[in-house]
Design brief:
By secondary structure, the chain is of the alpha/beta class. It has one domain (3-312): 1, 4-beta cellobiohydrolase (TIM Barrel). The protein is built from 9 helices and 8 strands. The chain has helices spanning 3-12, 42-49, 56-64, 78-91, 120-134, 156-176, 194-203, 222-236, 304-312, and strands at 70-72, 97-100, 139-143, 180-185, 211-214, 241-245, 270-271, 277-279. An 8-stranded mixed β-sheet has the order 1-2-3-4-5-6-8-7. Helix 4 runs parallel beside helix 5 (120-134), helix 5 runs parallel beside helix 6 (156-176) and helix 7 (194-203) crosses helix 8.
């Protein structure tokens, strides 16, 4: 049954005078029948294009065939790209996971994934178009990984600009994407103290959206991440929801964030598991930067050698 049919059936049972809120007319989880598998994720495309490589079948089976978030950066026509992606998921009655990753001064501390929109006004236009592209379709959206953890590498003026942009982003999704669960990024268990992160989330408009994400592109165990998330919730002072990136946390963290050795795939996307959802947000096999076990592979580029090491936990 499609989400439209589910929603119509639910509305039939409502009293005649009931007003359905514009924010979250229905849960996107209930509106769909599982998570969307992107046939054009970087590991799936690599496996498809390299059938003669002995690693291809393992990469496709263990990674390419799994639900993984689709990251969107400073591409032109962002509204249409997003609409096309959520439309493809909707046509299959599946729930897509998207990442908005285009904040000016992106990755201020790490540096490997620098870039983003060229100005505050350019970002506002971009994120507004992104939210409009999601529209009324069911989706999960993570807003700007690392954006609230990078403050130690930013000026006071840049921090204020960033908080304003993030607040605007939450407002756009609140207004334009009523059937999306949207999460501001809340860093990871080894970065910013929970009370400090809670304060930053509040300043960035977290109350306008579903909650926050934890461990995006990092390696902390699910237990450590849910513990951290619950501490942030306690400091927020209300029952915000959070999701955890489990894509590469099967062996936990060794304290290194950039292409460390010995890491492993975590559990695949699911509802629950100690958080609202456990998700593969970072694409396993995509490099963190020119570092660690992949010193010549740029950030965001798929490397089959990284993928196989994550599969084997080596």
């Amino acid at each position: 049954m499609s989400w439209r049919a589910r929603l119509a059936a639910a509305l039939v049972t409502l009293p005649l005078l009931t007003v359905v809120p514009t924010a979250h007319a229905a849960s996107p989880i209930d509106m769909t029948s599982g998570f969307y598998v992107n046939p054009n994720s970087s590991p799936a495309v690599w496996a498809r294009n390299n059938p003669g490589d002995a690693r291809a079948a393992r990469v496709q089976s263990s990674i390419g065939s799994k639900p993984i978030a689709r990251w969107f950066g400073n591409e032109s026509g962002i509204g249409g790209l997003v609409a096309s992606y959520v439309g493809a998921a909707d046509a299959n009655d599946k729930l897509p996971v998207l990442v908005a990753y285009n904040i000016p001064g992106r990755d201020a501390c790490g540096g490997h994934s620098g870039g983003g929109a060229g100005s505050v006004s350019a970002y506002r236009t971009w994120i507004s178009s992104f939210a409009a592209g999601v529209g009324t379709k069911p989706a999960v959206v993570v807003i700007e990984p690392d954006s609230l953890g990078d403050f130690s590498c930013m000026s006071s003026a840049a921090i204020q600009d960033r908080l304003g942009m993030l607040t605007y982003a939450t407002q756009m999704f609140q207004q334009k994407a009523p059937n999306a669960y949207v999460y501001l990024d809340g860093g990871n268990a080894g970065w910013v103290a929970p009370a400090t992160m809670a304060s930053r989330l509040l300043s960035a408009g977290v109350r306008n959206v579903r909650g926050f994400s934890v461990n995006v592109s990092n390696y902390y165990t699910t237990g450590a991440s849910t513990g951290y998330g619950n501490q942030v919730v306690s400091s927020l002072g209300y029952a915000a929801k959070f999701v955890v990136d489990t894509s590469r946390n099967g062996n936990g963290s060794n304290g290194v964030w950039c292409n460390p050795a010995g890491r492993k795939l975590g559990v695949t996307a699911q509802v629950g598991g100690g958080a609202e959802m456990l998700l593969w947000i970072k694409t396993p096999g995509n490099s963190d930067g020119l570092c660690g076990i992949a010193p010549t592979t740029p950030a965001g580029q798929f490397d089959p050698a990284i993928a196989i090491r994550l599969i084997d936990g080596t």
